[in-house]
């Protein structure tokens, strides 16, 4: 099949037919595709319509909200508000879970970071959207956030959209990872990266080294090891860090490598949020053959006790994530 004529929607309908996944999941992913098209257009023209800059408020996790953060959240919420399939939405931009009026007995929960890396917006650098879809664990009317508090192992679908030199949508429902590139002249996401596999090794690592002095001494040794270009025992890694989790994890997914955001004394659980950043990306990367850990625990296994709960994260090539865990525990490669 010529991939470049396989639209995202046609792919989803074929997946439904072949894998017997519920058609509702295909419809939910179609809606995420629609939201991604709207955001791709609006992000690219934000400077022309006055949507750059700060709102002047902070979100639930203390991040300064950009105008496009608020707008992106509205676009994603509206894409799921009238289809009657989503009971509630947990979003980085919402203090509490938003119950969806027409979905009070719907069976799915959406968790999302509508605009990841928004500090990049005003300078035109890459940003992303992250999404995870859970089946409700309760019955009857959805009335509390409890339905959203599920570990990554319960995800039925997850993925991200990267708004970069092109707009890509990458997703999994648990049997493989497929990537689609937006053709803006058609307004369609076309299959461009079928069955993505994460290389076991990579040549880059991605971390904010300005926190080096605050990391665990064993992780300082990892950074020294990765950056040792004179070593004869292992290949050194080059640092690549964009400030957008989606962009940095996407690089690791396609080319191999390691992204990590560890804990510090000031942030004992790190900065990244488990429910709508770490867990959905962990599902994608694991389905592609990579790994994702907090340093001591598989991200997908971590119990979720609050919607904005944070977790340290190391994600990417399996060998690199295992190296990270070994260094964190022992301060050496093995
Ligand atoms: P820092 C963006 O705010 C984000 O959540 C991720 O997209 C990104 O990797 C990280 O935080 C950047 O954080 O502390 O390096 O600016």
UniProtKB/TrEMBL annotation:
Keywords: Calvin cycle, Carbohydrate metabolism, Cytoplasm, Hydrolase, Magnesium, Metal-binding. It is an enzyme of class 3 (hydrolase). Pathway: Carbohydrate biosynthesis; Calvin cycle. Binds 2 magnesium ions per subunit. PROSITE patterns: FBPASE. Residues 199-328 form the Fructose-1-6-bisphosphatase class 1 C-terminal domain. Residues 14-194 form the Fructose-1-6-bisphosphatase class I N-terminal domain. It catalyses: beta-D-fructose 1,6-bisphosphate + H2O = beta-D-fructose 6-phosphate + phosphate. GO terms for cellular component: cytosol. Mg(2+) 1 binds at residues 92, 113, 115. InterPro entries: FBPase_C_dom, FBPase_class-1, FBPase_N, FBPtase, Fructose_bisphosphatase_AS. Mg(2+) 2 binds at residues 113, 116, 277. One of its GO terms (biological process) is fructose 1,6-bisphosphate metabolic process. Its cofactor is Mg(2+). It is found in: Cytoplasm. HAMAP family: FBPase_class1. Homotetramer. PANTHER family: FRUCTOSE-1,6-BISPHOSPHATASE-RELATED, SEDOHEPTULOSE-1,7-BISPHOSPHATASE, CHLOROPLASTIC. NCBIfam families: PRK09293.1-1 (NF006778). Belongs to the FBPase class 1 family. This is Fructose-1,6-bisphosphatase class 1. The gene is fbp_3.
């Amino acid at each position: 099949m010529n991939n470049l004529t396989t639209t995202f929607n046609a792919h989803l309908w074929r997946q439904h037919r072949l894998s017997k996944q519920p058609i509702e999941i295909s419809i939910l992913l179609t809606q995420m595709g629609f939201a991604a098209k709207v955001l791709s257009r609006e992000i690219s023209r934000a400077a022309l319509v006055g949507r750059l800059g700060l709102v002047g408020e902070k979100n639930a996790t203390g991040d300064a909200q950009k105008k496009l953060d608020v707008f992106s959240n509205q676009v994603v919420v509206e894409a799921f508000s009238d289809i009657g399939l989503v009971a509630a939405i947990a979003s980085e931009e919402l203090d509490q879970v938003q119950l969806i009026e027409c979905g009070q007995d719907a069976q799915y929960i959406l968790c999302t970071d509508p605009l990841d890396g928004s500090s990049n917006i005003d300078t035109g650098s890459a940003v992303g959207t992250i999404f995870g879809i859970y089946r409700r664990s309760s019955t009857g009317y959805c009335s509390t956030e409890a339905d959203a508090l599920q570990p990554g192992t319960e995800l039925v679908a997850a993925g991200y959209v990267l708004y970069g030199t092109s707009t890509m949508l990458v997703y999994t429902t648990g049997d493989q990872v497929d990537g689609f590139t937006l053709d803006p002249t058609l307004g369609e996401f076309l299959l461009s990266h079928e069955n993505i596999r994460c290389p076991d090794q990579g040549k880059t690592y991605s971390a904010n080294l300005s926190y080096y002095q605050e990391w665990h001494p064993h992780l300082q040794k990892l950074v020294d090891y990765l950056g040792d270009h004179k070593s004869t025992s292992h290949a050194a890694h080059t640092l690549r860090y964009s400030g957008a989790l989606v962009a940095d994890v996407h690089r690791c997914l396609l080319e191999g490598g390691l992204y990590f955001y560890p804990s510090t004394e000031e942030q004992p659980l790190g900065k990244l949020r488990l429910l709508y950043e770490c867990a959905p990306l962990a599902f994608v990367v694991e389905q592609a053959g990579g790994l994702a850990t907090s340093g001591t625990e598989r991200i997908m296994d971590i119990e979720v006790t609050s919607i904005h709960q944070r977790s340290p994260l190391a994600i990417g090539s399996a060998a690199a994530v295992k190296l990270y865990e070994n260094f964190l525990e022992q301060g050496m490669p093995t």
